Every structure is written in structure tokens, then in C-alpha cells.
Amino acid sequence: xxxxxxxxxxxxxLNEAEKVLIMIHGRGGSAQDILSLSQYLNVKDxxxxxxxxxxxSWYPFSFIAPAEQNEPWLSSAVETIGKTVKKALAEGIKPExxxxxxxxxxxxxxxxxxxxxxxxxxxxxxIIGGVIGEKINRENYKGDFAQTPVLLATSNPDFHVPVExxxxxxxxFREMNADVTEKVYQNFGHSINEEELELANxxxxx
Length: 206
Description:
The chain is of the alpha/beta class and 206 residues long. It contains 5 helices and 7 strands, in the order E-E-H-E-H-E-H-E-E-H-E-H. The chain has a 7-stranded mixed sheet with strand order 1-3-2-4-5-6-7, sandwiched between helices. Helix 1 (31-36) links the parallel strand 2 and strand 3. Helix 2 (73-90) packs across helix 3. The mean pLDDT is 96.
């Protein structure tokens, strides 16, 4: 079982843009939902790419379930992000001009993809997410982010994402030479707030 590649687009046409934002929706969400958030981000000159998860979910179980329980969907989901990046690269977009925004399950998937493929990207905002697996397999994560700015924002507590995993993810990204900003909101709930969008604009989409 694997995801069917279905990339929704918005913003500037890919062949006219210098920068690309890849947006990854959460469980039960849609590519169109996450694309609609772009109106609050400083990305009017970007091409926007949002892959759609087959059946609305990137993988079936919690992101902190044993990884094998989420296979083969998880590997296919990571591959889907890779194919979306390749679509941008094929149009001549440089890696340092490729940006990421993910929420919840989409934030986890974004962070997992980035940690497995670290290099100099434009930046990433991950709202309520962390790297995937019951235990963190540090051997999976290689490369150098070369000071790519990364925003990790979350609520504490969060029913789906323990704050400890967010902190652990921030530490891994710092070890891999990312410029990490973490922000924890107490009892905010499982959603995106206005300040997180403002932080993304001031740190990532500048």
C-alpha cells in the first residue's frame, strides 16, 4: 500500500517562481486546507506545492507507535515529500529556495523527511510535530542543515505530540546544524495560532 502522488498547487506557477513552499497537511486534513493557510504567510511570490495523502492520512497510527506498524505508508509518505522536492528541483529551483510548512501529522512527516535529508534548505515551520518512531533512531538522520532556519512550535500538553519529543527533535536538528527556534504554548490546544504564523513570517519567510 502506498500513496498516489497527487500534488495540489497554488501561488506563482512553478516555472515562474524563484522560491517554493511545500505544505504538508495533517491527519484528516487536505492539501487544499493547508494551502489556504498561505494567505497568512509572506509567500505571495512563492510557488506552493501541497501533496495530498491518499485517504487523508499519511500513516495509520500515532507517530510514536513502533515505526513498523506505520509501514508501508510511512516510507511511501516520506517518498512523497521527496518526489515533491524533486518536482521543484526539476524546474531549476535551488534547494536553498525550497521551504516547508507542516501541521500535526504533516509536521511530523516534514521533520522526518528533513532529518533524513539534511542540507541547506530555505527554512521550515513545523507546528505540533516531532521526528517519527516509538524510539528515535538517530542513525536515520544524516547531513548538515548549514544553518537552515527551523521553527518548532507546539502546545503543552498536546494529546498527540508529547512536548518531550518536540524538545528531542529540536536537539537533533541543532546537532545537524539547523538554526532552531522552539516555542511552547501552555494549554493552547491542537491548532495553529496567530503568533505561530507571525513567527514563521519573521523567522522563515523573510
